[in-house]
Every structure is written in C-alpha cells, then in structure tokens.
Hints:
By secondary structure, the chain is of the alpha+beta class. The protein has two domains: 12-109 and 145-180, no CATH class; 110-143, no CATH class. The protein is 39% helix and 17% strand. The protein has five helices and eight strands. The chain has helices at 12-18, 21-50, 101-107, 150-158, 162-180, and strands spanning 65-68, 77-80, 91-92, 98-99, 112-113, 117-124, 131-137, 141-143. The strands form four sheets. The protein has a two-stranded antiparallel sheet. A two-stranded antiparallel sheet has the order 3-4. Strands 5-8 form a two-stranded antiparallel sheet. A hairpin with an 8-residue loop joins strand 1 and strand 2 (77-80). Helix 1 crosses helix 5. It is elongated, with a radius of gyration of 23 Å. It starts with 11 loop residues before the first helix and ends with a helix.
Amino acid sequence: MKETVTDINKPFADVYKALDVKDQRKAMRSAMRREGNRLKKAAVSNLGQSGIGSGTKRSLSSGIYVRTYPDRYGLGFMVSVKPHGRRKGIHLNRQNMEKPVLMWAEDGTRQRHVGRRISSFFGKSRFTGKKIRQYLRGGASRGKMKRYAFLAKTEQQTADSVETNLFNNLQNNVEKAARKQGLL
C-alpha cells in the first residue's frame, strides 16, 4: 500500500489511507497512550490538591494508572484507581498491607459500626436501587471516609480538550509514520 503523498496540506484522510493497517493502529494507540498519560498527570495534580495522603511517607499517586485497551476490545483508554491485578490501584500502608485507599477516597465510604446486629429496617441498595434489608449494629463506630472526587474533578476539567488533543496527537503520529516510510 505504498503510495506517494506529495502534499502535506492535502486532507488528513489521504495521508492516513497511504499507511498500512499496522502503522495506522500504532499511530492511534500511541495517541491514546499519550492523552491517557496527560490525564493521569492531571489526576495526580488534583489528588495532591485534595489534601489526602499528606501525612504518609509513601505516595498515594502511584495508585492512579492508565490502561490503553487492546485492539481486540476497540480503541480507547481509561484512567482509574480501582484495584486491578497485583499492584494497580493499591497502596501499601504503614503495616505493609495492601489497601485500595484511592478507590475509597474517590467515592467515599459509608458509616460503619462493629458488633452484633440490634435492629433492621428496609432501605434502598446504593448499587441496584432495589429494596433490601439493612442492619444497625450495636458496637463502636468505625467512621466513614469523605468523598474526595479527584478523578471526577479531573474529568470535568479536561473533558473539553480530550478530543482535540487526541486528533492532534493522531495527526502528528500519522505524519511522522508517513515521513519515516518516505510517503511525504
């Protein structure tokens, strides 16, 4: 599929079509990875501004990760703090125990009590919305964690620029690949 593209000012589609499928996918994947890493930096910055983890020696920001989807699942990426595999989304605490602290910090946690159940009532499930039995416990309160929402803030801040950055990165990658193959 080697065609010579003489003018860079021609529509982007001509340059893109001149590349073979492997180089097209490589250009798209690279653009996704670059944009994902930019969003990860913004999320780390928002995490630092939220105030959580200021008293720890280990950085909480290592729990934020980017995943670029494989080709068989379609094109895309995600920035997440949910635990995945052995290390992603996990924080080591002072006792060297692995805890998904950032997942709890992003969404917050509900108030918890320990001890025996002393009464029950029907309420709505926070996951499905269905009517379920909920229990009150008689033991000590274990508290709750407030919602920090640093990923939600990142999404709100960067939502308008993601598409333009992706297209610009893709265009630069395609031009670079075309120059490498001598098509431009």
